[in-house]
Amino acid sequence: MPVLVETxxxxxxxxxxxxxxxxxRLHLEPKTAxxxxxxxxxxxxxxxxxxxxxxxxxxxxVLASQGCExxxxxxxxxxxxxxxxxRIAATGPDLVLDNxxxxxxxxxxxxxxxxxxxxxxxxxAFRLREDLAGRVGFPVIVINDSxxxxxxxxxxxxxxxxxxxxxxxxxxxxxKKRVVVYGYGWCGRGIALYAQRRGADITVVEIxxxxxxxxxxxGFDVAEPSVASTTAQVVITATxxxxxxxxxxxxxxxxxxxxxxAGYLDTEIDIRQLEQQAPGAELSPSLxxxxxxxxxxxxxxxxxRIVNLAAFGGIGNPxxxxxxGLTLQARSLAVLVDPDYDLSPGPQPVPDTVNARVATAxxxxxxxxx
Amino acid sequence: MPVLVETxxxxxxxxxxxxxxxxxRLHLEPKTAxxxxxxxxxxxxxxxxxxxxxxxxxxxxVLASQGCExxxxxxxxxxxxxxxxxRIAATGPDLVLDNxxxxxxxxxxxxxxxxxxxxxxxxxAFRLREDLAGRVGFPVIVINDSxxxxxxxxxxxxxxxxxxxxxxxxxxxxxKKRVVVYGYGWCGRGIALYAQRRGADITVVEIxxxxxxxxxxxGFDVAEPSVASTTAQVVITATxxxxxxxxxxxxxxxxxxxxxxAGYLDTEIDIRQLEQQAPGAELSPSLxxxxxxxxxxxxxxxxxRIVNLAAFGGIGNPxxxxxxGLTLQARSLAVLVDPDYDLSPGPQPVPDTVNARVATAxxxxxxxxx
Amino acid sequence: MPVLVETxxxxxxxxxxxxxxxxxRLHLEPKTAxxxxxxxxxxxxxxxxxxxxxxxxxxxxVLASQGCExxxxxxxxxxxxxxxxxRIAATGPDLVLDNxxxxxxxxxxxxxxxxxxxxxxxxxAFRLREDLAGRVGFPVIVINDSxxxxxxxxxxxxxxxxxxxxxxxxxxxxxKKRVVVYGYGWCGRGIALYAQRRGADITVVEIxxxxxxxxxxxGFDVAEPSVASTTAQVVITATxxxxxxxxxxxxxxxxxxxxxxAGYLDTEIDIRQLEQQAPGAELSPSLxxxxxxxxxxxxxxxxxRIVNLAAFGGIGNPxxxxxxGLTLQARSLAVLVDPDYDLSPGPQPVPDTVNARVATAxxxxxxxxx
Amino acid sequence: MPVLVETxxxxxxxxxxxxxxxxxRLHLEPKTAxxxxxxxxxxxxxxxxxxxxxxxxxxxxVLASQGCExxxxxxxxxxxxxxxxxRIAATGPDLVLDNxxxxxxxxxxxxxxxxxxxxxxxxxAFRLREDLAGRVGFPVIVINDSxxxxxxxxxxxxxxxxxxxxxxxxxxxxxKKRVVVYGYGWCGRGIALYAQRRGADITVVEIxxxxxxxxxxxGFDVAEPSVASTTAQVVITATxxxxxxxxxxxxxxxxxxxxxxAGYLDTEIDIRQLEQQAPGAELSPSLxxxxxxxxxxxxxxxxxRIVNLAAFGGIGNPxxxxxxGLTLQARSLAVLVDPDYDLSPGPQPVPDTVNARVATAxxxxxxxxx
Lengths: 370, 370, 370, 370
What we know:
- 4 copies of one chain form a homotetramer.
- By secondary structure, the first copy, chain A, is of the alpha/beta class.
- Chain A folds into 2 domains: 2-145 and 318-365, 3-Layer(aba) Sandwich (Rossmann fold); 149-310, NAD(P)-binding Rossmann-like Domain (Rossmann fold).
- Helix content of chain A is 43%, strand content 17%.
- In chain A, strands 9-8-7-10-11-14-13-12 form an 8-stranded mixed beta sheet, with helices on both faces.
- In chain A, 56% of the residues are buried.
- Chains in contact: A-B, A-C, A-D, B-C, B-D, C-D.
- The interface between A and B is medium-sized, with 30 and 30 residues.
């Protein structure tokens, strides 16, 4: 992770967090540990908790040896989450790095509320804007909305890894297969691109005609869902909306069609209804065959959960995308305590200067700008 | 122009402009004549003038025979412009279709100002927002800012025709040539794409690091201008800003480099300075060779003016892009008199519904959505 | 033409043709003049004639001033050809550079037949193998069969220029147009590739199933002619065989289809029959519209002659392809008098060593191998 | 395997092998079992052995239940091979299906030698042409030399799976990585293509200048090995020759370079010398890091063995390539007993008619020719 490593070097000199405490809540594993290392290098004291049941304790031990207080313990149950949230909030952290907005929520009524926070997810940002609206008196930088993530992670990272995962799970060739991609947002256009590069013919289904026109100009076929369904050999959803492919649509599809979802929700394809009507027989890990009453067979991957993360052997996001996201976190935290910035309270995008700084560093790490 | 033709059919039935007059100012030639035909079909009376010295009088005659009043006359001088603007304004048009905001300006103080107007250009919109700020009491829809134009016209239309024109003027092969593209906006990314598709190796120069990162993820090299200059065999500017390539930069470029500009301004490359230092010898129409004092030769196309329009044999925009732009005009005018819309005064983008409607029609014309 | 220029430099030193005469018959224009310059630099005396009616006399004058004897005179009629052939043969040339095998034929019965010859065309080679079989007692190197020509000229040169020429003549956009390419030889695969790069959807029609499979693996659709015809918006033939698209097939095509031929013969598409059934109205130079009795219209380019050469504004082959072909000529002639080579009599391919030498030089000229 | 399944249907009716015995020697697993099924369907009696130690006994049982005699037994040692070869030869098979030419060799001195044979591998064909030259009195069709295999298996199958395997083993992104591909044969061009489609910049190293020129025209950089080495971030060899990348070359490569081999031999990259100089530390299955004495680190995959087959999680060839190869086997055997064919003795390529027949079937299975 060269971009984050470069940030560590800078923090070691500049000590942006000297004398401050950071409440940290994010999946604890070797890569996020490098983010904590960056905060420690910048002079922070860090008190950390992971997401329930996912903490890697080898990593936690290393972090502890570096002076980071890690609350998670092996064998702890779900009730530990609330305890840890309260305990971190009780320390009155100067900064909060959060994932889901629960830790931010826990700190809202502190006597000395944080100077600022970062929130990793769009759904956390949504919670801040809805449930906690008007209660957040300090700036919260929402990492996931950065345009850098759209480009590097959503289009290229997700696009490539979704296609790779489907190929890996099914061992199928995409050559001259008709792949129907639902949604032509950042993820959808990456999926369409990388499926095409494996020799597939692509049909894009997209309700926004402007994006649909862009798909056509990018060289893809564009069709109404009812037409697209009847030609699909592979269906991949990436719309972010539930119920995009319902059971009647599945019945219309050709015999042998493969169904995969690349969106966050596991309800884009109605696998629940499919399972009820035609329970899946497991062919291999993450791959099921469903024999419909109309005589056709349908294949589903990972029960319709986000395929590149949920499928057995799923590829996840590339290390480069992690490097980018964690550096956005580190530098956004630094901005929150930088007197040159005067941020307004509440959820807000990553400042342009941070995006620009991280994009430049990433370009250098790719051997560009030389 | 199937999309505009479909609009004519609709206007013939719906008569959206029944009983209204439209003041029209746009280049008068066969394609824009179809736009006037659409207005007439919609029930409008049209009084029209072209841009100075560009009116095609054969077209004007046909329009006159269809009942459109055309003010331009063969042999008229530049002083006719002001006369015609005043004359149209004096008729108190219900709607104005403008190009440069001069006709809109002339109508501002009418007793009965127009119900609304469309403005073709971004520079006209700029004038409305600056010089005429606060004086425009009716909605003005700015056509050029439509995202449809960015996609269809700027990226694919301009991108493809710029590369085609350079190949045509020079008869050179792009295979393994190093082409440096300045600017990674819509035009720049189209130019980079189509130059690559002819076998060139592309370097993108872009000051916005986020766009630069996108260029790198799209597979192009990205470099600082000082580095890019020293490797360029072809330079194409598409930044929209003056002075991007100055004379000292040209001196640093390799012997034999070709300079072309794809931006609106003819000052992106400092051809004026180049001409002073090393006057160009014309090799063929629109192609000059400049022998620099440092012993290198440099080639320039069309004196640095926008290459796909200004070069001899330049290809201009494809008919499909014209079809799109003129339909946006026709449907935006219809929206201005549609009671379902309640538009605020002043310059504003094309309404989403119009963009969506035109995008859908264009998709059908491309054989999609079937 | 950097590759040929490099050869000239080498010949100036090595003088491979010292004391020899070369009978030269090839289109005489500025580029082929550089080939003659190479022979002169190598020490040859050259006596030259062009193809009937195509000689550029400005070029001829320059050649004469360099010591080359040029037989063609302005205003000469077709009867001059036989006279010039005889006259060159009568000089008893040591080497012959021919185009159509007529000059070779004229020298067969010389008391001192040539040491060797080169023949530019495949049809000339055919004549040598059929009509003159057994009579050619010296080696004749056939230039056009070199694999270098297949790659550089046929695939990329012809492929790109055919598509460019069609776009130029029609001013049409290829985006999402269905282009049917007949023949998946070197030219056909170039045409399919460059049409796809302009956004077209490609169907390949190819009678050899192995090539057809290659087309499918390359990402193109493959169809029987009867099916392909009914979907085509653009038809391009590149099979080298007559009667590929006959009139009944044209009648089955969609309204508005455009017909173009990229093969050597003007009979691949049966334009003669089309003209008889539905005489074409000229829309612009090289573009005709034919109104069929079944109510459809069909467009034809350049009367079905080879489109990139015959159409008005046709692009021809790029200079790089000429550079390659002429260098193959020059170096093949040198091999014929090189004692290290012991070539058998009769028509034969360009020796591997020559192909390798020219390919390497061309790579350097493209900035490769550095 | 739709193409082979279609062949089975045809054999069931035509019974080409009625009353004949086939001696079968090929890896015995579920896919090759379908080939045996085809022979049984065609009326053959089959006596089969696998390659040493690779037989899947579940498959063997199924085959036995269908009437095929399988010689392999669980737990048998290497000495079984010779026994089984003799035993099959002793039955005097009418046809032989071989892999390595050992079974063919065993049958040469039979009183009634086979009517014909097929040989899967190029190395088996080599053995027939060298060691057994002049002794083979019946036709032997060599499957691996079919142009269909070059296209489907070598270019697209191997190309795609080599790149996929490297990505899977290393979890690296190829975006803007400099990948150096040694060899531009069928495999090399597939590797270059699929690496480029993942965003890599490609340099091709190729000693044949004609292929090198083709690589350049295909858009890749071409360099001498000494230059290419110094820029490589990933090296992939696919030349079929030993010692292509030796230890001194490895020392010149940039720090962090990754070495992978896609050729049949494990000696294209001199991993043996690398291991001696800098023993590899295993980072993950199939991935090692070597710390050189010059301070650089080098990574190697699968000890330099053929990466898509040997690496942990290697992807192997796609099922479509297997389908193709096994159908070529089945139909070539049928040709050997078809009176319409009069094949000469000795090793020879797959007949054109068989290639054409299988290519056509494969096109149909890809949804083409419709």
